[in-house]
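Mods, move this if it's the wrong board.
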Amino acid sequence: MQQRTTFYRQYGKRLFDLVVAVPLLIVLTPLMLITALAIRFSLGRPILFRQPRPGREGRLFEMIKFRTMREAYDTQNNSLPDSARLTKLGKWLRATSIDELPELWNVIRGEMSIVGPRPLLVEYLSLYTADQMRRHDMIPGLTGWSQIHGRNDLGWGEKFEHDLWYVNNCNFVLDLKILAITIGKVLSRHGVSQIGHATTEKFNGENQLSLHLRDSEKRVTVLGAGGHAKVVVSMLRALGYEIAGIYDDAPELLGIQIYGIEVRDRIVNCTLGWRSR
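Not the wrong board. Structure tokens:
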């Protein structure tokens, strides 16, 4: 499914970003100043973490965040893992997403958007499939469809699935919905880190996606809501599987409930599924 060119995508989204980002930056400046002082006395300099990230069409920009980790190296002068460098203050800043606030400046500069796929590491660019690379058809965001579905608690396959769904379906109402849900997610501090990791595991390409499926604790997606879908869902649950979602292309089936699970629209780049028909 290819993304549609709409007025909102071409012009409205930039206006939406400025209308949200400029007032937020003004209102949150006192909090950002207090945070900067706390980092200065806790970690020293630099206060800000700057790192090149790929933006739209893979073009690099310098993303700005508050620093949350200390400099620490082993005897071979290699940087220690995130778990050893992340400070108590850093964990709190990440849990509350305060570390992301300087990215509002990236939004005002047009390098990021309020809503969009999160900007990942430059080293991942060479690992993407052609379909995964489509996440760069849009400007990366402060928050996104993937973030409200689990933040760092998602596997890479799920993250790409959600990112590509957003690329295909972006609109004004959806952006408002994502922004509103994000506020609740931040307050609940859900999905800040992946299980077994201080932050999240690195992406190593398609081989990692296959490995993740084997380690997914029986979490599956059902493709197709008609025919024997109820039988399939019932059987999978009896076998101890968790149903991650049910998807179907038929418009008349969207929104119906199958044992408490709402049928969603078509799935994009699904990496794990159980076909019911």
